[in-house]
UniProtKB/TrEMBL annotation:
InterPro entries: DUF779 (IPR008497)
Annotated organism of origin: Spirosoma taeanense
Pfam families: DUF779 (PF05610)
Name the UniProt record assigns to this protein: DUF779 domain-containing protein
Length: 126
């Protein structure tokens, strides 16, 4: 069981971006810029802080969010999707005429019991 998955459409966009920008990472924004959209960056372009939580990976890309925001989302399963349109963010997909978005649902009790642990802080400290 993963905390984060993605749609085939999102996977397609990520592959285009990876070809153009190399390794990628995601950070779930906390309301700045583009609401609460997942933001895609070239790996290392967004500085992970000591209180950022790594939820897992989607197609080889680390997916992070702030610890405070994780408190609100820790009982949900997130699915990364794309939709036509331009968001108001610095996320890499914007020039493609699409933007990433989150579709969420509450996790069932048995899913919660089988989730892998999350990691807080930069991965270099693991």
């Amino acid at each position: 069981m993963n905390r984060v998955d993605l749609t085939p459409a999102a996977a397609e966009v990520i592959e285009k971006l990876r070809t153009q920008h190399g390794p990628l990472m995601f950070h779930q924004s906390g309301g700045c810029c583009d609401g609460s959209s997942p933001m895609c960056y070239a790996q290392g372009e967004f500085i992970i802080g000591a209180s950022d939580v790594r939820l897992g990976q989607i197609v080889g890309c680390d997916f992070w969010m702030s610890e405070d925001q994780f408190e609100y989302w820790k009982h949900t399963h997130l699915t990364i999707d794309v939709t036509p349109g331009r968001g108001a963010s610095f996320s890499l997909e914007i020039p493609l005429g699409v933007r990433f978005l989150i579709r969420s649902r509450l996790l069932e009790p048995e899913e919660l019991a089988n989730l892998p642990p999350v990691h807080t802080g930069p991965l270099e400290t693991v």
